[in-house]
């Protein structure tokens, strides 16, 4: 009982079970015995978890020992490395792909930001079934698994067909996936979700698919929401999937009735690259997206959609008394139990300069989290403080990938040097977390780092096979 006196272990476990993840993370530093208890596989499934790290795709030069173009066997080589890119896990497996024309290899990696030895997951997900051979008529094609979303410890991937000879990166959901996978890397459990049946058309050029899951309230059911959008990012159709009945459902009528009819069919634009957040309201899960609902003034609402595709509310975004064309949305996320919205603001009616650079504002929604709640300005920081530049282009030079779920940290990708950086709002400090590697254009350019929070509980929805009704 070293480190905690005469308090029985069972009593400590019950006490830890009631504490938030932020407190538990600090308690790991109290003593070796507390750290061992909090990370013990026998107990950790009972404790709240927080951000452990990020999953990202690294496209690097293939070595001379690599096999011919295509997929490789997970038994060919195994290598776990710790280098100057941060603590990571790299393993050659069926999901490691060598690109023929460029002689480069795509490998998914995990960078640990928890400052603890645990968890160190195998980012290649070798427990998933290997990709099938490409179609006979598709010479030069291969399947790859692309991360689309992550929520409360579960990862959503799409298995899509890719061309070896393609020099341009395609969207992860640009073509009809052969299937989807929802998996838990901490338990190596997974479920197959069939394709929704969507195919590209002149009005529906791509899809955006999101995962809805909450381990605390409904650990054995997950939902998917798929938006079919045009080249202009306008929503044309919507489908939903529930693991409880294992079926896709066309929800166009619900989407239209929930708000589409007021906005106009061609005016509901989901802003790309701005993230998504899931919150609990009214006993169900709501997916929050940044949406332009009138097509003229830019993103003006945070739209909440339930598991059945119905619009439950539209929360007006803060404007900060700036001209309509002098700001844009950057990111939406859930942090410390509150909805957070990140926006970029230019000097009102002025030119950019060292005295008047771009600024980033972080807002938090009021206490009641209702449609009538008000946004409160939480933090303001200038771009010179963040990036050393008076201006950066969103999604070209930088992207926001996460707001820490239990702290005042914002995580960015600096695209010009492929660095994952963290900004501490309390200390106003910028820290380089990891080197993300080249990233490449063939595969890496379309997959931003994905935040990962471990889930050590078993879920009945993950059956290691196809969900059945």
Automatic annotation (TrEMBL):
It holds the Pfam family F-box-like. It comes from the Eukaryota. Residues 68-103 are annotated as: Disordered. SUPFAM superfamilies: 3-carboxy-cis,cis-mucoante lactonizing enzyme (SSF75011), F-box domain (SSF81383). Residues 7-47 form the F-box domain. PANTHER family: F-BOX PROTEIN INTERACTION DOMAIN PROTEIN-RELATED, RECEPTOR-LIKE KINASE-LIKE. This is F-box domain-containing protein.
């Amino acid at each position: 009982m070293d480190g905690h006196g005469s308090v029985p272990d069972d009593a400590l476990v019950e006490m830890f079970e009631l504490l938030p993840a932020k407190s538990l993370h600090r308690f790991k530093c109290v003593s070796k015995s507390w750290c061992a208890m909090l990370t013990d596989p026998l107990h950790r499934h009972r404790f709240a978890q927080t951000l452990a790290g990020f999953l990202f795709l690294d496209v690097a030069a293939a070595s001379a020992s690599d096999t011919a173009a295509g997929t490789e066997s997970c038994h060919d080589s195994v290598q776990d490395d710790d280098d100057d890119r941060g603590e990571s896990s790299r393993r050659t497996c069926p999901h490691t792909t060598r690109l023929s024309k460029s002689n480069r290899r795509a490998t998914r990696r995990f960078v640990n930001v928890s400052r603890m030895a645990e968890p160190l997951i195998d980012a290649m997900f070798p427990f998933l079934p290997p990709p099938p051979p490409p179609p006979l008529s598709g010479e030069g094609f291969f399947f790859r698994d692309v991360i689309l979303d992550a929520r409360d410890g579960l990862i959503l991937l799409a298995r899509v067909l890719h061309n070896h000879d393609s020099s341009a990166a395609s969207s992860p959901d640009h073509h009809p996936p052969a299937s989807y996978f929802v998996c838990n890397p901490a338990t190596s459990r997974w479920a197959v979700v069939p394709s929704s049946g969507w195919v590209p058309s002149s009005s529906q050029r791509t899809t955006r698919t999101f995962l809805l899951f909450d381990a605390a309230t409904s650990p054995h059911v997950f939902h998917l929401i798929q938006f079919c959008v045009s080249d202009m990012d306008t929503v044309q159709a919507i489908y939903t999937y529930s693991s409880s009945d294992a079926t896709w459902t066309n929800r166009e009528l619900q989407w239209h009735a929930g708000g589409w009819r007021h906005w106009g069919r061609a005016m509901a634009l989901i802003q790309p690259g701005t993230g998504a957040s899931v919150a609990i309201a009214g006993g169900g899960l709501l997916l929050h997206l940044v949406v332009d609902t009138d097509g003229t003034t830019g993103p003006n609402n945070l739209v909440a959609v339930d598991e059945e595709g119905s619009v439950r509310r539209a929360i007006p975004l803060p404007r900060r008394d700036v001209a309509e064309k002098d700001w844009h949305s950057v990111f939406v996320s859930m942090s410390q139990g509150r909805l957070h919205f990140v926006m970029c603001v230019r000097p009102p009616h002025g030119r950019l300069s060292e005295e008047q650079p771009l600024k980033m504002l972080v807002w938090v929604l009021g206490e009641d989290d209702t449609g009538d709640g008000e946004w409160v300005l939480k933090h303001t920081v200038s771009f010179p403080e963040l990036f050393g530049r008076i201006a950066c282009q969103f999604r070209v030079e930088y992207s926001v990938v996460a707001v820490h779920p239990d702290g005042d940290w914002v995580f960015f990708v600096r695209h010009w040097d492929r660095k994952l950086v963290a900004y501490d709002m309390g200390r106003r400090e910028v820290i380089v977390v990891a080197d993300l590697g080249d990233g490449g254009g063939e595969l890496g350019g379309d997959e931003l780092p994905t935040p990962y929070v471990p889930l050590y509980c078993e879920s009945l929805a993950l059956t290691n096979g196809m969900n059945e009704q």
